[in-house]
Write a structure and sequence with these properties.
heterodimer; A: mainly alpha; 0% strand; B: alpha/beta; Alpha-Beta Plaits; six-stranded mixed β-sheet; 14 strands; elongated
Chain lengths: 319, 311
């Protein structure tokens, strides 16, 4: 006897969404993150415009250089973002559900005529919307400052690339948000889930590169007399490092913001026959190049969220 | 029947939380689920609300199955969890407003109801204060306000008087009695038997996941304590009083404590007792009927169970 449960799982979704959004936007942690990110944006724009003024010349994609130019000791805006976005996402998600347990509000909220789905989706979407608002504001800030410093308006394709870059950043943020919410279901203490999420982030930021190198060396050792083995090694390394969302994100934005990038893996000389090195790709081709990476990030995000969903549905309400 | 269960059971692995529960609560009744902590009361409540799935058996609340139609059940059933929590940084009003959004009430209706329930629970003055500054008693009243917000047909209250000082507890019990006057069916759980026995029409006593006794307090007293009438007698008595009392017809257990006699009798023996004291040449100082206490029922029942187990 299989009967469907009544009603829609979305009942109450927007109530949860707007409450969480209001909580996020008025919370102290988002203030701190805003200050940090705004400072980094200012720094990045300043260095970029300083460097760019000296080499202004003939770059058709000057506007995009705003995001990617770096000058020691300051990294580029993109580098700043890839560092801060995971932290911001973790900060918004790490106490999403264990916080409700801790405050004894979960059973009261779930006794209202809503499903758990609404609570979980509402929280996730609110976190994503908050990150979206912050990212958009930040992006406009950088773009606006760039216009002031450089005085060169962006072309249509540049705006398209910049918006896609924003979208990719949001998907990347979604991965870390989903991870943080997953840990908030797994661990009862908010401190534990925050630490666990940061540990995962550190692992992928610092250690995965090293591990991937060691593994690639072990699986496909480089034979100095066999150039094919060097290629196999490089490909294995690339394959392994792409398990990290950081790599996927870095590759995506590299392609989107650098129209001159034509490949993300090792390229053989034979493949370059007839190619005009340095000529920019059209947006559609760049998008095609970054498509697997984008899909991969989306898949990771969906996977983590689904796991969270299953675990949360099975969780007992009482603490 | 407003609430009805058939062989409702819940097991966590090998641990039995609730076993073979057959519960029936009629409309407008105040029913008490009573028993020590961990005897299955809260699990029962969560199953009735569809917040946890029964391992076997079925439940019907207002004609709906909580497993398959939880929204219909939760729309009409108010729930006050034990140690109820609110979002501390939000005000009482904002907390209730969130609930009305989850209920899907339109704005004007919601604001009208919030005003009403806050007024009724005596929280109108503190409506704009963050809940973090509230005392336990105020939080509990805010919880009941939230229950009323739904205009429920059934109110389920889990340990409503736990952690309240005696005065606040009495006040809170009076509010629960107010619900009954409105025709709301109340199911409450408590381990503080003496506090809630006065307001329950019927009670079910829980022990290790089973509801072992069910009925009115008086019924249970009669069944378990042997005599429905418990009489307290104080007399400056002659030596032969004990003999005389024992020989009276209808006297059950008899014990002396702190200078008073406590008797259990099948009927009201007060006139006979007074006569007996006078005939024994003593002076009658005090003679009264005592309400049976649930604590005693409970203690006595489990004494018997233990004896039976030992035998």
């Amino acid at each position: 006897m299989l009967r469907l449960r009544e009603g829609s799982p979305w009942t109450g979704l927007w109530a949860v969404f707007f409450k969480e959004l209001a909580d996020h936007l008025s919370s102290i942690r988002i203030r701190l993150l805003e200050v940090l990110i705004a400072l980094s944006a200012l720094g990045a724009v300043y260095t970029a415009s300083q460097t760019l003024r000296q080499t202004v010349s003939e770059d058709p994609f000057l506007f995009l250089k705003l995001f990617t130019t770096e000058q020691d000791p300051l990294p580029s805006f993109v580098a700043f973002l890839s560092f801060f976005v995971p932290l911001a996402a973790i900060a918004l998600g790490f106490d999403a559900l264990n916080g409700e347990y801790g405050r004894n509000t979960l059973s009261r909220v779930l006794a209202q005529p809503i499903y758990r789905d609404a609570l979980l989706f509402g929280k996730f979407l609110a976190g994503l919307a908050t990150l979206g608002v912050v990212l958009l504001a930040l992006f406009l800030l950088v773009a606006g400052l760039g216009l002031l410093f450089l005085g060169v308006p962006p072309g249509g394709e540049e705006v398209g690339r910049a918006l896609l870059f924003l979208l990719a950043t949001l998907v990347y943020a979604g991965i870390w948000l989903a991870l943080a919410i997953l840990f908030s279901v797994l661990f009862r203490q908010p401190a534990t889930s925050a630490l666990a999420a940061i540990a995962v982030w550190l692992f992928f930021t610092i250690f995965w590169g090293i591990v991937a190198q060691l593994l690639a060396q072990a699986l496909r050792p480089v034979d100095p007399f066999n150039p094919e083995s060097a290629l196999a090694n490089a490909q294995a390394l690339l394959f392994l490092s792409r398990f990290s969302p950081n790599t996927l994100y870095a590759e995506t934005i590299l392609v989107l913001l650098n129209p001159a990038v034509r490949s993300l893996g090792p390229v053989l000389f034979t493949q370059l026959e007839g190619a005009l090195i340095g000529t920019p790709l059209p947006l559609s081709q760049s998008l095609l190049l970054a498509w697997p990476q984008l899909t991969g990030m989306l898949a990771a995000c969906t996977l983590l969220f689904t796991l969270t969903y299953v675990l949360f549905q099975r969780r007992e309400v009482r603490a | 029947m407003v609430i009805e269960t058939h062989d409702l059971s819940k097991r966590y692995g090998r641990v039995v939380a609730v076993e073979g529960l057959n519960l029936q609560v009629g409309e407008g009744e105040v029913f008490g689920l009573l028993g020590p902590n961990g005897s299955g009361k809260t699990t029962t409540i969560l199953m009735l609300l569809g917040l946890t799935e029964p391992t076997s058996g079925t439940a019907q609340v207002l004609g709906h199955d909580p497993v398959r139609e939880p929204l219909s059940v939760k729309r009409q059933v108010g729930y006050l969890p034990d140690s109820v929590g609110f979002y501390g940084e939000m005000t009482a009003w904002e907390n209730l407003r969130y609930t009305t959004r989850l209920l899907g009430l339109p704005r004007l209706e919601a604001e009208k109801r919030i005003g009403e329930v806050l007024e009724r629970m005596g929280l109108a003055d503190v409506a704009q204060r963050p809940v973090a500054t509230f005392s336990r008693g105020m939080r509990q009243r805010l919880g009941l306000a939230e229950v009323l917000l739904k205009r429920p047909k059934v109110a389920i209250l889990d340990e409503p008087t736990l952690g309240l000082d005696p005065e606040a507890a009495l006040e809170f019990l009076a509010m629960i009695r107010g619900l009954k006057a409105e025709g709301i069916t109340v199911l409450l759980s408590s381990h503080l038997l003496h506090q809630v026995q006065a307001i329950c029409d019927r009670v079910g006593l829980f022990h290790r996941g089973r509801m072992v006794l069910v009925g009115t307090v008086r019924d249970l007293a009669e069944r378990v304590l042997g005599g429905a009438y418990r009489i307290r007698l104080r007399a400056s008595a002659g030596a032969s009083l004990a003999e005389r009392l024992k020989s009276l017809e209808g006297v059950g257990a008899l014990r002396q404590q702190d200078g008073s006699w406590y008797l259990e009798a099948r009927r009201d023996l007060r006139p006979e007792l007074a006569r007996a004291v006078l005939e024994a040449g003593g002076e009658l100082l005090e003679l009264g009927l005592e309400e049976p206490s649930l604590d005693e029922v409970y203690a006595r029942y489990f004494q018997e169970v233990r004896h039976a187990e030992a035998a």
